TrEMBL record, chain A:
Component of the Mediator complex. Signal peptide: none annotated. One of its GO terms (cellular component) is mediator complex. It comes from Trapa incisa. This is Mediator of RNA polymerase II transcription subunit 18. It holds the Pfam family Med18.
Automatic annotation (TrEMBL), chain B:
Residues 1-22, 291-348 are annotated as: Disordered. Residues 318-344 have a biased composition (Low complexity). One of its GO terms (cellular component) is mediator complex. InterPro entries: MED8_plant. It comes from the Eukaryota. This is Mediator of RNA polymerase II transcription subunit 8. Residues 295-317 have a biased composition (Polar residues).
Amino acid sequence: MECIVQGIIETQHVEALGILLQGLCGVQKEQLRIHELCLKSVPNLGSVSSEVKILCDLVPPETTWTVRHVGGSMRGAGADQISVLVRTMVESKASKNVLRFFYALGYKLDHELLRVGFAFHFHRGAQISVTVSSINKMLKLHATDDAVPVTPGMQLVEVTAPATSENYTEVVAAMSSFCEHLAPLLHLSKPGISTGVVPTAAAAAASLMSDGGGTTL
Amino acid sequence: MMEGVTQGQPQPPQLQQQPVPPQQPVVEALNPAVQQQLNLEHVKIRATSLFKAISRILEDFDAYARTNTTPKWQDILGQYSMVNLELFNIVEEITKVSKAFIVHPKNVNAENSTILPVMLSSKLLPEMETDDNSKKDQLLQGLQSLPVALQIEKLKTRINMVAAACESAEKVLSETRKAYGFGARQGPTITPTLDKAQAAKIQEQENLLRAAVNYGEGLRISGDQRQMALALPMHLADVLNVGPGMQNLVDTSGVYQKNTPIQTNTISAQNALLQATGAQLLARSAASPSAATSFDNTTASPLQYANSPRSGTNMNTPSPQQQSQQQQQQQQPQQQQQLLQPQQRAKMMPLSQHHPLLTQQQFRQSSMPGLGQTQLDDLTGQAQQKFQSLHGQSQLQQFSQALGNHQQFQGRQLASIGGQLGQGNLMSRHLGQFSGAANTALFNAAQTAQNTQMIPNMSATMPSQSLLPPRVQFGLSGTNPQRTHPSQLLNDQIFNMGGTNQTGMLPLQQQGGSQSAFGNMQQPNAQTFQANMVALQNNPQNHQTAFSQQRPQNQQ
């Protein structure tokens, strides 16, 4: 299971957000460059069609592959009260022929995208990961080098934390409190719910980027 | 309670009554009246007795502790109460008169217990004193010479300066807070608003982005646009094969078709088709597992695989495919083919290039006859269909390159052929690597034999064809991996051919002189075959005669 919230931020403020996150998290930012391939099963493979994501991490010298399946999210009155989306998720590292394997199983490529940005992984009540990335699409199949952003002026911010069914309330609380720290710059919400930009974003970004402007004593 | 009993040196209030000799230390005695009332001697006696009582009790406790017995609490409590009472009486008596000379703190608790000794003492502890002095010096640097009033003035101005600096700092902080609207306590005072158009644009962008990430909208490429980029990125290059035959690996949205027409002079095409058919052949062969397994009971031939530790060759000997790659500039990695073939026996056939005369070791009677028919018949048909379309002139040119290569001739190819006899597609490659007319002969023999065997119909391919694309996967099941020796392998094939369909050999003879010789060579021995091969190589014209001699020898 994982808890996830998403937000958007204008590209011009991304650097400021990086500075803010650096201060909040206390860890170094890590580069992010992930090629996501979303595979869908053909209709006659199972009773329902399923979707699997293959993530290829292009950053380290050796590319690592991950298989990810995202399931349904928690529903109900309790879920509506939580400001964070809690959903089942299964993830595993895989060898590099995982794509071939899924093709052999009968999955077909539905879409692919490339995430380029940075990420912070830290522990604050829960193991939280924050990624700020621009989502790029590829005009030609698998042409990751020629990817163009889907929305050039806007980037996606995702805050995720793994959880189990026993401890998800604490994880949700930790994530919510962390997200409040980002309030001046962006609003985070459940995936699928749009938030708009925050009016104080520009001012907050300016203050983060400037060197204070104070006079020396 | 702290007992402030001093032993008689307090400041007497009536100082003038005693003489104060200047040289001698001042001896101060108590007021006689106080003295009488206090009766110091008496107090001393009582104090010592009390001390003794307490020490007795402590000794008792010690004894208890040492002997590990439980003390009799009744007795001890009684003793303690007596001691307590005595102490109380003493203190009471002293307090009556102690106001004159004793400072007796009334309220000692945790807060002031540490500082009380310092407060009561008339002089600081030495280290505290030095500390104090150093701080004082620091503060009054340069001022100690001046009179005290001036010192006070200067210190005052210093304090004022520091206060002013703090104030201005506070002011600046609050101003900047206001300006940026960042103050936590007051909240943003300036809230820039977006105009409607901008907000709408942003909303639209946001929806695009969220839809793209969560649902993949806007990222799907329609089928006809799904042309794979010519240069796959690094991480995908070795995962996905590029090639027309690799339909299983790529999203089959219709772009990639099976058995796409061969592009001439492209090894990949041949490769692909060979592999595709190989896959099919494999599938077929897998259908008869019992037959397939019989292929495996081979003797241990060290040269089974090109680069396996069991092979006697160097580990890094490039396989035939690689070597031919150097000739053909094949770009596909070998692993691709290996990965393609699902069967485990898909391994590159060994190069017996370094062991041209493996014959002795590796010659075996074929176990294939039993195998051959059922399995191979099925495959043959398919192979025939496929390969006839495949092998065009392009192969001819390619194979011609290998003609001059004696080594190859001796080395591997028959081995490969034999091993791969179950797989028609491989025959062409193996045979192709033979040089000279023997090449032709073997090749054609293999080809014609496909009528009954799995040998592909190589009749279309000219004998002088050069090496097949190096990527051909040999690992189809059903092959006897031990048949590395060329003659041995060919023998197997020929055994099969002989065993199953003698007539299959006949067409060979019609193809040419050398071929006919080959056709006669129906069941030769390995050694004899090799001799024949040599004979073939050296003297193509004599095939017929040489082989014809062989015929009666190895009827099986």
